[in-house]
Structures are given as C-alpha cells and as structure tokens.
Amino acid sequence: MLKKHAIVSTIIFLELIFIKYAFPQLVQIPTYLSPVAEYAELLAVFFVDGILIAVVFTSIIITILYYPFILFSYSLVIGQSFSFSYSLDTFSLSSTYFVSAFFVSFIGWFIRRNISDSWIEQLSLFGYRIKPKVVIIGLVTTVFLYLLFFYGNFFFLIGCIVDVIGFSLFGDYYDLPLLALSWLSVPYSLTPKGRLNNQGICIGKIRGILSKGSFIDSSVIKVSGSKRYKWQAVDFNYCIDFSSTKNYNVVVVGTSGSGKSSFAKLMVSKMASNFLIFDLHGEYYLQGVKRIDVSRVSVNPLSLFNKSPKERALEITYMLKSLFNLGNIQVIELTNIIIESYAEKGIDPDDPTTWSQPPPTFRDVLLLLERRKKNALSSQEINKYQSLEPYIQYLSSTIFLSNSLDFNILFSSPAILDFSNVPTNEIKYIIMETILKSIQSLMYTSKSSKLERMIIIDEAPFLLSKDSGKQLIERLLAEGRKFGLGFLLISQSIDYLKDIIPNAGLFFAFNVVEPGEIDYVSKFFGGADLEMYYTLYETFPKLPRGMSVTRDLLGRFVYLVQLYEGDVHV
C-alpha cells in the first residue's frame, strides 16, 4: 500500500508542476485566454486524477482522502496559502474529480457484480487500535511544528491533527515524522495497515493475500486466470494461536515433496505441548525426541481401554471387518468368540471390577476357535469356524501377544512411532488403531482448556480409508478440544479428507496437481466467487516447495504462507 501511495503522490505532483510551469512553455496561449486555459487544464488534471486514484486503490474512501491532498499540493505549486477561501475557490474543480472517480468505481462494481472498497477490506484485515503514546507524541509534535514553522496556518494544523488520528489508529510512533507533510500524508495515515497477531506458534511468513488488485499491483504467484484477484505482496509473520481456533485439528494436503512433513516438523518443534507422531515411512527425525521402532514392541488389540468386554469385542470385530472385509455371519461369530475369550480370563461383562484383569490375546481367541471347530457337530459349523481361522492365525503373531508399550509413559513426553519396519499393512493398521483407542481412553480421564497434546498422523488416508478408522478419527477430532487433544492429519490425497476438512480448525493446501483435487481446494478457499476460484485453480500447481494456501482464523482472507527454513533440528 505504501508503494501505491508513493507512486500516485509522485504522479500528482509531477502533473501539477507540468501544468503550472512546463505546459505554458510548450504551448503558446494568448494572454487573454490564460485564465480560461489554466482552469481547463486543472479540470483535466482533476478528472484524470479521479480516474487514476479510483483505478489504483479501488476505493471511494481513499479517493475522498486524496481530494485535500490534491488541493494542498496545488497550493504548494502555485505558492498560495492553503486556506478556507482557497478551498472555496477551487471547489468547482472537484466536480470533475468526483464524477470521474465515481464513474470508474461504478464500472468496477458492475463488472465485479458487487460493491466493495479496498479500504474497508484492509480495515477488516488489520483492524485498528488506539495507541495513546502515539496520540500524545503526535499532538506535542503538531504543536511544535505549528508554533515553529506554520504559525497562523489553521488548515495546516487541521491536517496534522488528522494525521495524528490516522497514525494513532493505523500506524505507530515511527510514522510521526510524516506530520510535517500535513495534508500530504493524510491518505497514507488514514489507510489501515499494521501487523497481524504474532501470538502462538510462528511457522512462516505471509507472502501474499488474495485480494482485488489494480494494474499497478504485481502478484506473488503469477496468474492469468483473473484480472480481478491477485496475490498482493505482504510480509507478516504467520502464527498459529490455538487458543483462538474452533478446535485443535489441522489438515495438511499436498503432493510428495511439497513441504508437508517440513510443516509438521516445524510446528511440533515450536510447540510447548507434547506430541506423538505416527511415522509410516520413517521420515521423521527430531533432535532430542525419542523414536520407537514399532516392529520391536508388542500391543494387545484386545485390551479393554476402560470399556466393557461386549463393547470392546464389537469394536475389534468392526475393525477386522473393515480390514478383511468380513461377512455378517463371520462378524457375529467372531464377536461371540472374543466375548467368550474375555470370560475365560475371568472378565465378566456385568462386573466392572473384573475389567482390570489381564485381557486375552489373539492366541487365546485362536485356541478357543480351534476347540469350537473340534467340537462342532455339523459341517456348516466347521465351515463357519474355518472361514475365520486364517485371519485369527494371521493375527496370532508375537507382536499382538502383550502390551510392551506403557501408554501412560508414551504420552508423557514427545515421541515418534516409526512404523516403517512393520511387515504388513494389516498389522500396521491394527497397531495404529489400538494406540488411538488407548489415546481415546486416556483422553477421557481429564479435561483441559488448552492444547496439551498433538497427535500427528502422516498418510492419514491409511486409516481413513477403513470404516473403523474413519469413525474413530472423526470421533477423536470432534471431542478432542475439550480434553486438550489436537490432531494434525497429513495426506497427499484429499479423497478421504473431504468430510474432515470443513470441520478442521486449520487447513493448509500445498502444491496440488490432480485436476479434481485442485477443483476441490479452489472451491473450498474461493467459495462462490468464480473469479477467485480461477485464480486459486491456477495457483496450486505453481506453488513452490514450502509454500501453502490457508485462511485466517475468521475465514475472511486467503493467505499465501511460506514456511521458515532451517529452524527444525533433525
């Protein structure tokens, strides 16, 4: 915005100087026509300036603010005091200025099909805050300038006071030297500007804001799909303040190598709370953070996690149904066998005092299944048990024999769970869901008003592609905030995240190239605005590594965020 003001101010000054001093030398005008010619020249200048300012700033408010600027500039050029009588004498010139400005603005509103003003948009982005220190210093400086240099010039004093008001709302004390310019700095002083909220976890820089631009604006990401929207360059810290988000859930999507993992590493390295990373491919190494090779530990999926045997048996069979595509008869029979396995370990569904007993394992379930098959009285029963036997045998491996992971200790400090050496996807999935069930169980033990723990799941579709995993993740995301639990879901694909993204506290889209996915993220950020959609659609395939698109917390503006580089100790 400062660049625009500097360019426009320079153009106005140069044209006024040209009209006053250069034009009479270039064109010989009879003396008796000089007053008329000068008046016509000024009418033309005001007409052109009205168009120029309306086009450059796309704001009626800023156009109005420039009117006293032009009058004051002209008074300086002709060497006349800027006074009330001077303002009245030149008032007739204002007609062409405002007619041209409103005409251009009306055309812009008609083309865009909405009435908008960039000044109001800037105000909603940056807001305003009265700074008492700026008011005091500004008024003292104004009095000093008035008494020392411009005593008796009442209009100069008014201009300085307007500047003080502007800088106290939208500027800072370092802007106060501009008070010496009086009305010349009014358009800049009353333009909303400032810094965004720096509270929370700062992970990068806002390099662009998607907004309506003029011909003078360049775009951070070069796009041709829309003349209306551009990525207007800014330079603000981007910080995540989880105390202001609707929940603690974050979704990150993008192609391989676009910066998703760097985002996760950067965020957790700056967090004060604990975190647990589900690392499917062995990509995460953070200095001082313990790594656990999941292939070398064991978990027991039949652990109750403070639930009744019946409820837990249903959850386990639902998981296995999602994983192995079991039929309804298989599900019913497996549920009964698991409940009976609990009973054989002394765990009574109707007696909660027995639920703390050591649970059975899949090895116990297999032994019970084999006994049932041996005692079966019909070939139909034998076939029923035989249809389950391969799955239970597969799950009766050493990794599911006991719980060597102490979940309370695991969640007490930052940790990375490395799944890259787990032999099969089925075992990997069961371990992940079992750990998430333990997280759910521990989550219910205490509430919290702040973020206590962040769970990072890389390649989230690995879980979300299964019905049981999707149901579990959606419930954890819905209930996590009141228990101080947040989730960061990372994915190369959007397919399994479409029900989750609209309800996430934050959504970051890095480089996306698949047309259907570009269409989805462009509609998500652009809404019903077709021109914004086209700009976004052209942007996503062009995003360099480490740069993403996201919205501000209130959903008003679309940001282009560049991650910090070199801040993560790996």
Write the layout of secondary structure elements.
Blueprint lengths: L1 H25 L7 H24 L2 H19 L5 H6 L4 H19 L5 H9 L5 H17 L5 H17 L15 H4 L11 E12 L16 E12 L9 E4 L6 H10 L4 E6 L10 E4 L15 H16 L3 H17 L17 H13 L4 H17 L11 H4 L4 E4 L6 H19 L4 E10 L3 H4 L2 H13 L3 E9 L14 E4 L5 H12 L3 H10 L7 E5 L6 E6 L7
Parallel strand pairs: 3-8, 3-9, 4-6, 4-7, 5-6, 7-8
Antiparallel strand pairs: 1-2, 1-11, 10-11
Helix pairs in contact: 1-2, 1-3, 2-3, 2-5, 3-5, 7-8, 11-12, 12-13, 12-14, 13-14, 16-18, 19-20
Task: Kindly list the characteristics that best describe this protein.
11 strands, single chain, seven-stranded parallel beta sheet, 570 residues, alpha/beta
Rg for CA atoms = 34 Å
Question: What sort of overall outline do the alpha carbons produce when their principal axes are compared?
Answer: elongated
Biggest sheet record: 7 strands, parallel
Please tally the helical runs, counting DSSP H or I stretches of 4 or more residues: 20
Q: Please give the alpha-carbon distance between the first and last residues.
A: 39 Å
% residues in beta strands = 5-15%
Roughly what percent helix?
40-55%
Instruction: Tell me the strand order in the biggest sheet.
Output: 5-6-4-7-8-3-9
Question: What's the count of strands?
Answer: 11
Give the helix/strand class.
alpha/beta
Oligomer: single chain
Q: What value does the average pLDDT take?
A: 87
Q: Uncertain spans, ≥5 residues at pLDDT below 50? A: none
